[in-house]
Amino acid sequence: MISRDAKQFFFLSLGPAMGVNGWLYRRLRAPRTGAARVHLGPGIKTYLKGWVNVDANCFTGRCDLWADLRRPLPFHNDSIPAFYSHHVIEHLPDLRSHFREVFRCLQPGGVYRTGGPHGDSSVAKFIAGDDAWFSDFPDAAVSTGGRFDNYLLCRGEHLHILTLSFLGELLADAGFDAPVVCLPAKETRHPELFSECLATEWESDYDCPHTLIVEARKPARV
Ligand SMILES: C[S@@+](CC[C@H](N)C(=O)[O-])C[C@H]1O[C@@H](n2cnc3c(N)ncnc32)[C@H](O)[C@@H]1O
Q: Structurally, how many domains does the chain consist of?
């Protein structure tokens, strides 16, 4: 895993260029018709064909748009039918403004499917002392607390603990329909929007999932 310092240096030095690239994209190429679905943070393995894949890492990963998700999203108001992100939002410093940006860009009736490390599950597994539920990524640890820290904070990479109540609060605050629906991996209430995403989700524990997944809808009339 790339060190936190290297990532900070990356965003410090290339952030302004990503800002310009995003601005140019919004001025010249961003869709206005509602035809393009947007995948935020595909990384190395989960590029979605036919979507606009947006990532800061266009060097070892693959993306269509090089942009920094900490900045305003480079899309027009009410223009996008669906956003998808998987294990990305926990890396963003200001989740409240991220959800407001997604809401701004979504068409009325559009949906955001997003997910990341499951705070509720991990607390339950920590209390139960179920060390096997936690992985050795990015570091191996022996104690339950060490494994819990490793999972939730990921060597300082994760900036938020994602629980259903917290996501529900932030999404409702941004204007999404409440209550926000939590779903098992590989299941969606909107197959017409997200069927391609499901195959990329890697959950193995359906009783106590590792990934908290929600689908939040922008009201049809705002
Ligand atoms: C843990 S990976 C998840 C990859 C993939 N979605 C998956 O589920 O396997 C997080 C991804 O988010 C991207 N990312 C994190 N912070 C970002 C930012 N501020 N702007 C753009 N992309 C960012 C990273 O480059 C990386 O590709």
A: 1
Q: E strands of 56-98, at which residues?
A: 65-66, 80-86
CA of 123 to the centre of ligand 1 (A): 24
For ligand 1, atom 27, the nearest C-alpha belongs to: 43
Whether pTM > 0.85 for this model: the answer is yes
CATH number of the CATH domain containing 61: 3.40.50.150
Asked, for residue 148, whether it belongs to a domain, the answer is: no
Residue 99's domain comprises: 4-117+162-217
The Å distance, Cα 85 to ligand 1 centre, comes to 8
Please give the pLDDT value at position 222.
Answer: 64
Q: Which of these, 194, 163, 184, 155, lies nearest to 39 by C-alpha position?
A: 194
pLDDT tens column, 67-125: 999 999 999 999 999 999 999 999 999 999 999 999 999 999 999 999 999 999 999 99
* Residue 179 resides in a domain: yes
pLDDT at 1 over 90: no
Q: How many CA atoms lie within 13 A of 92 on its CB side?
A: 26
CA 72, 201, 35, 78 torsion: positive or negative?
A: negative
Q: Considering the domain boundaries, does residue 207 fall inside one?
A: yes
